[in-house]
Amino acid sequence: MSACSSSKTISKKPAKKPVSKVDKIVANAMQYRGVGYKFGGTTKRGMDCSGIVYVAYGSQNVLLPRISRDMAKRGKKVSLNKVKKGDLLFFKTNKGRRSINHVGLVVSHQKGVIRFIHSTTSRGVIVSSLLEKYWKNSFVKATRIL
């Protein structure tokens, strides 16, 4: 029997990188893209901004408050240049009020571009960029939960 006619084939599969808790949280949130806005919503039938963060973190047994201004009190504040996937971005979109009223979940930060998933009243669950003027001007702070 020659060395070339061995009946056993050894195949090397590339090692799979373990999926982190943050990756699972972001993947859960991304499943809601395209879902319409619903105040207080936490399902595929309708979702609000804090609902998507609450559900995504909850999928990994990380319990957060249900509303954005209370979520903003959790975690560690991080500067925008250090923001990474899974961090939370907080906004004041209602100029008449002084409190935080909107939250988004960072899905990527590459080459200075921060993209985040959130739910808007007009377009439902979407991914936006912090480079967009509206979000840049409404931004308050970023926090890291994990």
What are the salient characteristics of this protein?
alpha+beta; 146 residues; two-stranded antiparallel sheet; 4 helices; single chain; endopeptidase fold (from Nostoc punctiforme)
Question: How are the secondary structure elements laid out?
Answer:
Blueprint lengths: L20 H10 L11 E2 L2 E2 L1 H10 L9 H4 L4 E3 L9 E4 L10 E9 L2 E8 L3 E6 L3 H6 E6 L2
Antiparallel strand pairs: 1-2, 3-8, 4-5, 4-8, 5-6, 6-7
Helix pairs in contact: 1-2
Query: How big a fraction of the residues is strand?
Result: 25-35%
CATH H-level superfamily title = endopeptidase domain like (from Nostoc punctiforme)
Order of helices and strands: HEEHHEEEEEHE
Query: How many E strands?
Result: 8
Whole-number mean pLDDT: 91
Number of domains: 1
Biggest sheet strand line-up: 3-8-4-5-6-7
> What's the N-to-C terminus distance?
57 Å
